[in-house]
Design brief:
- With about 90 residues, the chain is of the alpha/beta class.
- The chain has one domain: Rossmann fold (3-Layer(aba) Sandwich), CATH 3.40.50.
- The chain has three helices and four strands, in the order βαβαβαβ.
- Strands 3-2-1-4 form a four-stranded parallel β-sheet, with helices on both faces.
- The relative contact order is 0.30.
């Protein structure tokens, strides 16, 4: 069985990092998009011990990121992180 894939924009922020950890714990493949202008800071991902488990892509290449996450046997779930609260213990 192919793992579901989640594309998270804002993965380097607190909410995005905790969401990534929760999805990884549920067996998802996680792809994180970041803005080239701001660079990528993996500090939070490293703090959570998941930096090596997340695939990072430049948001300017979002079409490429979507292509990398989609296939005929997987589904794409897009989570856009704005000012929403993600519980520290994962998804509720």
């Amino acid at each position: 069985m192919v793992a579901k894939t989640a594309l998270i924009t804002g993965i380097s922020g607190q909410d995005g990092a905790y969401l990534a950890r929760a999805l990884l714990a549920r067996g998802y493949r996680v792809v994180g998009a970041f803005r080239r202008t701001s660079g990528i800071s993996v500090g939070r991902l490293e703090e959570l011990g998941i930096s090596g488990e997340v695939e990072l892509v430049d948001m300017s290449c979002l079409k490429q990121a979507i292509s990398a996450t989609c296939s005929t046997s997987s589904s794409l779930m897009k989570f856009t992180i704005s000012r929403r609260r993600v519980p520290r213990n994962g998804l509720s």
